[in-house]
Structures are given as C-alpha cells and as structure tokens.
# Entry
Amino acid sequence: MREFVLERAGDTVEALRRAAARTPEDGNMQYLAGGTNLLDLMKLDVMRPNRLVDIAPLAVEHGRVRKLEDGLWLGAAVKMSQAADDPDVQSDYPVIAQSLTQAASAQLRNMATLGGNVLQRTRCNYFRDTSWGACNKREPGTGCAAMDGCNRRLAVLGVSDQCIANYPGDFAQALIALGAEVNVFGTDGRDRTFAFETLHRLPGDTPHIETTLEPGDLITGFKIPAGPWTRRSRYVKVRDRTSYDFALASAAVALALDGDRVVSARIALGGLASVPWRAHAAEDALEGRVLSEANAQGAAAAALEGAVAHGDNAFKVELGGRTLVRALVETRDMEIMP
Ligand SMILES: Cc1cc2nc3c(=O)[nH]c(=O)nc-3n(C[C@H](O)[C@H](O)[C@H](O)COP(=O)(O)OP(=O)(O)OC[C@H]3O[C@@H](n4cnc5c(N)ncnc54)[C@H](O)[C@@H]3O)c2cc1C
Ligand code: SF4
# Structure
C-alpha cells in the first residue's frame, strides 16, 4: 500500500472543508466510510488516494433510518445491517431489506455503510489485478482485457466498446425500483437532491468516470417516496452460491396491482448491466395488463432486448430474463398484511 494522509472529520462541515482540494495533489482525496471496498482497492493498488477523510463520526448526523410522512429516509452512514434489520424497512419496503440481507456477509454488513455501498466499484478481475495492462476503467486508453477474456460475470446491458464491467451491488437496484432520490453536499456547502437513477454513468468512451458526482461531493442519504408499490416489493438474486456472493443476475420489483392487473410496475436489474439498470421497457410492457406468466415473459424479453454478450457471459441474457419472470411472479403472489 502507498503512503497516504488520514484525517478525521467531526461533522459534515469539517468533512467538506477537508475534502476541498487546496492543491492539485490534494485533489486525490477519498472519503473513508466502512472501508470495505476502498481499503481493498488500495491494498490491490487499484485506487491510490493520497488523502483519506474518515467520515465515521458523521453517523451522528447521517446514521439514522427515519420514517417520514411521505416516505422513508436512509442516512448515508447507516450500516447495511442496521437498515436491513429495521422493522419499518422490513414491513413497508421489503425490497430494500432483502437486497441488503442478500449482500456480502454479516461481518461486512455490520461495517459497510449505505453511502459506500452505492459507490462500490466493479469486481471485473482485470480491473482489480494491476498485472493486467489493458483496462480502460483503471487506466484510460489502455484497452479492455475482458472483451475477449474471462467475462462470464460481466455485463450484457449498457456496455460500450471500451468497457463491459458490471455494477456489482444489490441495494442500488432496490433504490431505483422505488424511485429514490439521493441527497449530496458539494464542497461549496450547497446541497442538491436528484433522482438516484441518474447517479451512475454509462461507460461510453469514459468508463473511468462512474458517477455524476463532483470531487469532494458527500452523499448524506436517500429519500424513498411513499407509494402503493412499496410494500409489494421484492428482490430476487441469482448467484453461483447462495450466500456471500455477487449477483449473476438480480431483479428488484415493486408493483401496484388492481387484482391481477398491473397499475404500476417498477423494475431494476442487477448483475447484468454496467450501472444499476432501470428496465423501463419491461415496465411499459406490463402496465395495464394482467400479470400472467406469459406477460411476465414478454416483459423480460423487452428488458433484455438490445443485450450484447461477449462469449462467456452469453448465458446471462437467458438467466436475466428468467430471474425477472421469477421476481415478477413472486411479487404478484406476496401476501400483503393490511
Ligand atoms: C467479499 C465481499 C463480498 C461482497 N458482496 C457484496 C454483495 O453481494 N452485494 C453488495 O451489494 N455488496 C457486496 N460487497 C460490497 C460491500 O457491500 C461494499 O464494500 C460496502 O457496501 C462499501 O461500503 P463502505 O462503507 O465500506 O464503503 P467504503 O469502502 O468506505 O467506500 C467506498 C467508496 O465510497 C465512497 N464513499 C463512502 N461513503 C461516501 C459518502 N457518504 N459520500 C461520498 N462518497 C462516499 C468512498 O470514498 C469510496 O470511494 C462485498 C464486499 C466484499 C469485500
Ligand atoms: S471490462 Fe472494464 S473494468 Fe474490466 S477490463 Fe474492461 S475496461 Fe477494465
């Protein structure tokens, strides 16, 4: 690991002040939350910040789950396990609790924060192993070793000819399915709230730029609006082994139904795409229709239309469709307590 300076911020104002770059060298700063992704990548020499600003003390301000009159607030410093175990989250937003309990391990969930979770980086082996020279995400302009290499776990949706890495997290799909917003403070002290769906960027020609955040931006939390679909919501994750593994394919689904007819369908896919993926085409295919298995299959076909496979990961097109069908049917059949 390379040398770095570790600073501790007592509160949000101090974190933003410390994050503001004073010299060009200062610019290579990262916030340190649970450290479960950042420290891994520093040890692997993939991320090389020269300054870490420890934001653990910000849990006092941003470490709470709060039920609001018009929805739910999840602070960015909330631990994954804390949100997953919250009774209101479990009863009224089950897709969130399920996405978190099916992620990582109990130890990691006790350590990792929601803010860090949404910003975790791809598990593409070539990205994480610096002995591979060609990785446009790690070193722009060097190429992509995964294109013709081992890409079984990588993306089939939202890929470019520069990068086919997949977004590995689970919780982000739940946020997208529920139409969440994210609140961010900039180093100028101003805050802004925007659709979480717009936080992650498609790789295009610049796969190294993964989000719409500016340097030093601090995520403070996520607002999930109330809606008739939040209780009828579910996360289905398919992986090589049933615990402690990343998704090969996953689907977060939230439905408002009138009998078996879909009033509103909200769908996000994971494991399959370069970013947490909102499946608008599948939603459109279902709205106003009876949620039969045949219609679920039609929606799945719409969701995967345009998928681009690269050899080893071709199976994901079929798997992604089947995962979504299963998630839709299971969400339809959920028993909702009054
Ligand atoms: C073995 C293993 C298995 C895993 N399996 C899964 C899995 O199945 N599903 C899953 O979803 N995840 C999985 N993870 C990933 C894990 O959930 C993430 O590492 C964790 O959520 C990151 O949170 P953290 O608080 O530790 O973030 P950190 O590692 O501290 O930070 C990650 C990044 O986010 C930035 N950051 C953190 N907080 C903020 C903030 N508030 N504002 C702005 N920037 C911020 C940091 O600067 C850093 O760049 C796994 C991890 C490991 C090691
Ligand atoms: S898929 Fe993306 S992250 Fe993986 S080697 Fe190619 S450029 Fe790098």
About this structure: The chain has 13 helices and twelve strands. The two ends are 54 Å apart (CA to CA). The domain at 5-58 is CATH 3.30.43.10 (Uridine Diphospho-n-acetylenolpyruvylglucosamine Reductase; domain 2). The CA atoms of residues 185 and 218 lie 5 Å apart.
